[in-house]
Amino acid sequence: MALVRWAVDLATTLEREMTTDREPQADALLRRELPNLRAAWRLVRDRGMLDDAVTLVVALFDAITYRDMVELRSWAIELAGDPLLAAHPRAAAVLGTAAEASYQSGDHERADRYATAGLDLAADSRGSWLCLMARSVVALARGSYAEVVELCEAAAPLAPGPRENLGVAALAMAYSGKLDEARAFNERGLTGAVSPTMLAWGAYVTAEIDSLAGQNEHAERHYVRSIDLARASGATFLVGVATVGLFSVRADAGRTEDALQGCRDAIDYFARTGNWIHQWTTLRNLADLLRGLGDHNVAALLHAAADAAPDAPAANRPLDDPTSAPARTAAPLGRAEVLQTAREAIERNLTRTQLSTRRHDDGAPAG
Q1: pLDDT digits (tens, 9 = 90+) for 258-290
Q2: DSSP characters over 275-318
Q3: Tens digits of per-residue pLDDT, 45-101?
Q4: Which of 96, 148, 204, 305 could form a disulfide with 226 if both were Cys (CB 3.0 to 4.6 A apart)?
Q5: What are the residue boundaries of the structural domains of the chain, listed by start?
Q6: Is the pTM of this model over 0.90?
């Protein structure tokens, strides 16, 4: 069928172009042709065209990983559940892609299950790489930093060119306090990278390391560079995670209004895309900002909700932090409640900050 042949050819072209400096043009093409790809997807699924369905899903891995096209995740997860998939030679690649889709959807349990199942198959290098990739980010969310490094070092030689594996290892090293080793991993990972998304990824990792080193000015510069590159390439996921880091360093610098606005943008983005793994990190960082503004009760509520959430990543904050104590006397907030509470706190503190700024500019007492 002409539509299916066209869609397979397009997806294969997009897969190739997304890793080059022509990525922005590929992103624009993908977004423009998504309705036609959707029609082709439904056709191959309705007619049981498994080979074509596999090609479409695996070729769209970068779109699933870095872009806000949430429906593409459902394609990967749908195909992973096809009873005929197990006998397909590229089953591991589909399961690895579905694992990434699950992770982006905030379900790291399902992501780990898919990735582990894929690795248990006699996979080709592409399938093994995709599964190792997914397992490494799940391990990072769990705080299993030694496992992250092991998985990333196994994945890196299998990668189709410069990819994010060593950058993920760098984050694990940085979060475990080994900043020099983190920088070395990230520099190795950036070797040969040309696509805006991979350059944005490297800048984000650099910013995270700088932030942990207390070098906030350097961190801010690299977060901004990451966001600019990611916006140019359409990699909205990276815009989201870099915005979280950016508002945190701006909060540390006393730029409260900028920090609150950045946090609001990040919360709205992760709410739209359903990525609760990163949403919980955003809410924890907001809680730290609110605590510094004296909004202790809301800070405690947000921390308690994140601590109780099974899909929240590991916290780098002691569980006996006194800011959590008041909130533990009641049931933690659910997702809808926690988002409403966070948004109300942002708007309340934004209003207070802006009023204080206007009073200061007018020469009136700020109290």
Answers
A1: 999 999 999 999 999 999 999 999 999 999 999
A2: -HHHHHHHHHHHHHHHHHTT-HHHHHHHHHHHHH-TTSPPPSS-
A3: 999 999 999 999 999 999 999 998 999 999 999 999 999 999 999 999 999 999 999
A4: 204
A5: 43-63+74-142
A6: yes
